[in-house]
Amino acid sequence: MAQVSVVRCQDYHYPRVREAVERALEPLGGMGAFVKEGQGVLIKPNLLQASPPEKGVTTHPAVVRAVVELVAEAGGRPMIGDSPAIGPLRRVLSRTGMEAVARQTGAELVDFSDVVEVKPPEGPFRRIEVARAALKAEVVISLPKLKTHSMMVMTLGVKNLFGSIPGFRKASWHLKAGTDRVAFAALLLEVCLAVRPALTVMDGVVAMEGEGPNTGDLRPLGAILASRDPLALDRAVMEALGLPPEGLPVLGVARQWGLWPEVQLEGEPLRVEGFRLPKGADLTWGLPSFVKGPLRRWFLPKPRVDQRICRACGLCVEACPPKAMEMRGERVEIDYGRCIRCYCCQEVCPEGAIELR
C-alpha cells in the first residue's frame, strides 16, 4: 500500500508553498527519509518549453525552490535538470524561473544531452536511451505539473519522467510507438522503472485542464501531492478528478504488468468536479487492436492550424515525428495520411494556433 499525501496550498506565495511541501512530506518521513548527507540529488521538474511561470505550463519555481532547499537542509547536493521538448535549454531555464532558483539556492543546473542505453526490467522495448544525469544520480526527485495531455490524457508522475529522454530523441520514440497509445504508455512506464524516482512531489496548486499540456485553461486546485510511488500518485490524482484510473494509459499498462498500485491517502482530501479532458482523449481505449487502428483514424481529432493565429514560426514542423507537416510559404500544411495523432505540434505551439477537431 503506497502512501499519497495531499496538502492544500492556495497560491504560490513562497512561505505557503514551503510549508505545504514540508507538510506533504511529513507522513512519508520528511526529506531526511529520502536524502542522506553528501548524496547527489537530481530534481526533475516539468520544463516543457520556455514559458513563464504564470502560464501554468511548467512546474512552478516556488515548488522547485522548496524541494531544493529541503534537499540541501537534509545534507544533499541538489541538481535541477530536464530536457525540454523544444527550445534551447538555457532559454528554457531562464524563462521558467529555474535559473533564478539556482542562483537563490546554489543548486547546480545539469544538462541531459549525454545518454546511457539501458535494458528496462519490463515492457516491449528492448533498449531505451535515458539521460546519464537521471540514471547516475544517487537520488531522483520528480516534480510534475498536474496537466492534461492531448495524447496521453494526463501528464502526471509517470509521464514527467519522459523528460529524462533528451529532447532530440523524443521524436524517434513517438515514431516507434506510432499511433498505438498503449505502446507509448509502455515506453513511459519503462522509463519510469529505469529512472526509479525516490520521491514524486506534484505541483497541483494551479493545474491545466482542456487542451494541455501547453494551450489548456488554468484551473486552480490548491494542492501539493507527494508519494514514493508515481503510479500511486497518478491513481490518486485520477480519482480526485473524478476520472476512472484505467482511463490513464500508463495505469492501464501497469495493471497488465501486475504493477497496479494500492493507495493509502494521507492529509486533506482533494475532490474536483467538472475537470475537462482534452479532445484527444482516447475514446478507443480497451478495444481490440484489430478494430482500434481504423477507429482511431475516424474518432480521434485531427490537429488543424488556425491560420489567423499562426505566426509561421515552424516549431510544429520541427517537432512533428512523422514529418507530416511542412511550411508552404507562410502556411503550415498537414498530411493526415502520415499524421500519427501524437499532437506534438499542439504541444509545442507557442501561439495556441493548433486546435484538435
Walk me through the structure.
- The chain is α/β, with parallel strands linked by helices.
- It folds into two domains: 2-267, Rossmann fold; 301-356, Alpha-Beta Plaits.
- It is 32% helix and 23% strand.
- The chain is built from 13 helices and 16 strands.
- The chain has helices spanning 14-25, 61-73, 89-95, 98-105, 132-136, 157-160, 167-177, 181-195, 230-240, 249-256, 289-299, 315-319, 344-348, and strands at 2-8, 40-45, 77-81, 108-110, 115-118, 128-131, 139-143, 145-149, 153-155, 199-209, 217-227, 263-267, 303-305, 325-328, 331-334, 354-356.
- Strands 1, 2, 3, 4, 7, 8, 9, 10, 11 and 12 form a ten-stranded mixed β-sheet that branches.
- Helix 1 (14-25) crosses helix 2 (61-73), helix 2 (61-73) packs parallel to helix 4 (98-105) and helix 7 packs across helix 8.
- The longest helix is centred in the middle third of the chain and has 15 residues, at 181-195.
- It is globular, with a radius of gyration of 19 Å.
- It starts with a strand and ends with a strand.
- Mean pLDDT is 92; it is low at 283-288.
Q: What characteristics describe this protein?
A:
357 residues; Rossmann fold; Alpha-Beta Plaits; ten-stranded mixed β-sheet; 13 helices; 16 strands; globular
